[in-house]
Design a protein that fits this description.
Rossmann fold, 4 domains, 700 residues, alpha/beta, 5-stranded parallel β-sheet
């Protein structure tokens, strides 16, 4: 490091010298006399040699330093990865270091961590990393892991290129006479070299970051790993069962007490990911048709079983398995066949890994199973079924392949209808399987049943209740071809989880009404916070629920007193759609959180345009007439994805206005000539029609 600092100081001094010489013109060189010519030539040669030697020495120093740091970082990173990946060696080393204190140490570490987390408030976080202060054994391995870390700072490969170019330029121009242009070039080269060295002094290595992440994961493992506990559980497969017999030989008769079916569903709006440039961004998730599946299950059971619908959050799942002895229907996404994608109730994502699920299911002990029956309405849920089986669940319906929402809803409806008609579990599964596979023309539907013995559900006769859905009463219907807005909807819902007044605003109509409508329908789904208590309309006296007001600029002023009285109740929430921010809105009572509605992105605009067209687009529509493509190829319909990518740069003419896009796409009919990539004329035609019409629409 001292050598690097010395090199940096030398370069900075050279840069300062060039800066001082930059402001004055050099004296005109005089020709030496014949007597002084040999001496003058020797001085010039000596000066040029010194400059070349300095440049070469600096280059050698930098190159050797970079080679050393790169080699050491690669070696240490490889050692760290191998050490962290070899869990057997880690455990063996821990037991060898202190085998007698291993169980007590792990128990003390868990207890200390749980006590600290319990003492902290909801807004506080641990100041120390997990595992810090857990005992001398952790301190010992902390020191050993720190030895594996490569140097925190090193030169980057880009820095090597810049330094090489700068030194080569100095060597190349060392024989030139010092003209003003040459001095400026030398100054720029030295400036680049100095700044590159300074930049490299604060650039953390990728290997260092990777090893730090491995170290954090290692300490989390050490503090949570205990012998003979679920932390060491290796998920296996379900026991093999023969094909279902035609008639059940042994029936376990359920008591005549009604059974409660808990329907847990999760359909988060988007998930936080990393973009190509490393920045965080939200990626939308496919939305499940939860309302359709809930209605199908309730209609099939016909009131024979009490159906309770909730969002599938970690808290609700923990509460369900704590109560135990229930029938559980779980509808959610899965990631990598080993992670449940759950929901926090406001559109956010909660991920539950397979091992975390096993710990959650087995945390209550083995005296009672987590559930009596589980229906996993997830794609490729065989590994999740094995986790539930390990927790004591004896009857599981799952899938071993991807299934569509329609297929899952139809299977669930047929299955629960057969159960309500007092069919045994295996017979009900066989009936539902035959109905779904009939649509597939004998293909495999992917549904499987694991049942440790057969079950016959007996329930008393009950009058059929009113099964009409109550969640979407007094709400507008769903918006057709609603594209994007997942991140905006998530932002609004997350604010409603902690604030009581949210203002969604945009200076011009960019789909504000449609966005408010979809927010209302999402938050009113069965099991969510405002199910059955969301009102979309005018201001009115309310003490509880969510009131959504569209075009609220004037309504907030006219009904300010009514809304202020509503806000006196801590169970009243307000979502207002305005054309501008309302910073002074109820500032003496609550804080109004503002969310701006942006225009549609180019990709969203192209997607909406394609969905609203009355015919598929061809190359003649997206290419200009002077294109060199073949005439025959131009007339062939484009695949949707290719058409979307070709249309994406052209969609900028609509400026992200969904109303304008809908109008323009509606004019693309089979009788219309090819567009030839000219959307400007189509836009002008639609603007004229909208100005002549001037009528409000739902999608405006």
């Amino acid at each position: 490091m001292a050598l690097g600092k010395w090199s940096l100081e030398v370069l900075q001094n050279s840069r300062a010298l060039f800066q001082r010489r930059r402001n004055r013109e050099p004296p005109e060189p005089t020709e030496p006399s014949e007597r002084d010519a040999p001496h003058w030539h020797c001085c010039q040669v000596s000066k040029y040699c010194r400059r070349r030697a300095c440049a070469l020495l600096g280059f050698i120093i930098v190159a050797l330093r970079i080679q050393y740091l790169h080699g050491r970082a690669a070696l240490l990173s490889r050692r760290a990865v191998i050490t962290c990946a070899d869990m057997t060696s880690l455990r063996s080393a821990l037991e060898t270091a202190n085998s007698s204190n291993w169980p007590r140490f792990m128990q003390d570490a868990d207890n200390a961590t749980e006590e600290r987390c319990r003492d902290l408030g909801p807004d506080q976080e641990l100041e120390e990393p997990l595992g810090a202060g857990a005992g001398s054994l952790v301190d010992h391995f902390s020191t050993e892991m720190n030895k594996l870390l490569p140097p925190q700072y090193r030169f980057d490969i880009i820095t090597l290129v810049l330094v090489t170019v700068a030194f080569l330029y100095l060597v190349q121009t060392s024989d030139e006479r010092p003209t003003p242009r040459a001095r400026r070039s030398h100054s720029f080269a030295l400036s680049t070299l100095t700044e590159s060295l300074a930049l490299s002094a604060v650039a953390e290595t990728q290997e260092s970051k990777a090893v730090k992440r491995l170290q954090a994961a290692y300490f989390d493992l050490v503090c949570r790993m205990r012998p003979d506990r679920s932390g060491n559980f290796q998920v296996g497969a379900l026991p093999h069962q023969p094909a279902l017999p035609e008639h059940a030989e042994h029936l376990e008769v359920k008591a005549a007490k009604p059974v409660r079916l808990l329907f847990l569903h999760a359909s988060p709006l988007c998930v936080l990911t990393r973009g190509p440039n490393g920045q965080s961004k939200y990626a939308p998730l496919p939305r499940l048709k939860i309302d359709r599946e809930v209605h199908a299950v309730r209609e099939a059971l016909q009131g024979a079983i009490d159906v309770k619908v909730k969002t599938a959050s970690i808290h609700n799942l923990r509460k369900a398995v704590t109560e135990g002895n229930l029938w559980l229907h779980l509808s959610a996404h899965t990631a990598n066949e080993s992670t449940l994608v759950l929901e926090d109730g406001f559109g956010g994502t909660e991920a539950l890994t397979l091992h975390a699920l096993v710990r959650l299911l087995r945390s209550g002990g083995t005296d009672a199973p987590a559930a009596f029956f589980v229906f996993l309405s997830n794609c490729r849920s065989d590994t999740l079924a094995a986790a539930f089986y390990s927790a004591g669940v004896q009857h599981i319906v799952y899938t071993n392949r991807a299934v569509t929402d329609h297929c899952a809803s139809r299977f669930a409806k047929s299955f629960y209808l057969a159960m309500a008609c007092r069919r045994s579990l295996r017979n009900a599964f066989r009936i539902a399987l035959s109905e779904v596979e009939a649509d597939l023309e004998g293909g495999d539907s992917g549904f499987r049943l694991f049942s440790n013995g057969d079950v016959l559900l007996q329930v008393p006769e009950v009058a059929h209740p009113d099964l009409s859905p109550k969640a979407y009463e007094n709400l507008p219907g769903p918006v057709e071809d609603f594209v994007g807005r997942e991140e905006i909807m998530l932002s609004v819902l997350q604010h409603l989880a902690h604030r009581r007044v949210v203002v969604l605003h945009c200076p011009r109509r960019l789909g504000l009404t449609a966005t408010l409508t979809m927010i209302a329908r999402y938050i009113s789904a069965p099991g969510r916070k405002f199910s059955g208590s969301c009102i979309f309309g005018e201001a009115q006296p309310l003490k509880k629920g969510l009131l959504i007001i569209d075009d609220a600029d004037s309504a907030l002023l006219e009904h300010a007193e009514v809304l202020k009285q509503n806000l006196e109740s801590d169970k009243f929430y307000l979502l207002a759609g305005c054309s501008k921010p309302q910073w002074e809105l109820f500032s003496d009572v609550v804080k109004a959180v503002h969310v701006e509605l942006p225009p549609l992105s180019l990709l969203e605009s192209a997607t909406l345009f394609l969905q609203r067209c009355h015919r598929p687009l061809t190359l003649e529509d997206v290419l200009h007439p002077n294109s060199t493509d073949e005439r025959v190829v131009k007339k062939e319909p484009l695949p949707k994805e290719r058409a979307k990518q070709l249309l994406k740069p052209m969609a900028s003419v609509f400026e992200g206005d969904p109303r304008l896009i809908r109008q323009a796409a509606g004019k693309v009919t089979p009788n219309r000539p090819p567009l030839h990539g000219d959307l400007e004329s189509l836009k002008a035609e639609c603007i004229g029609a909208l100005e002549a019409k001037k009528t409000p629409c739902l999608w405006s």
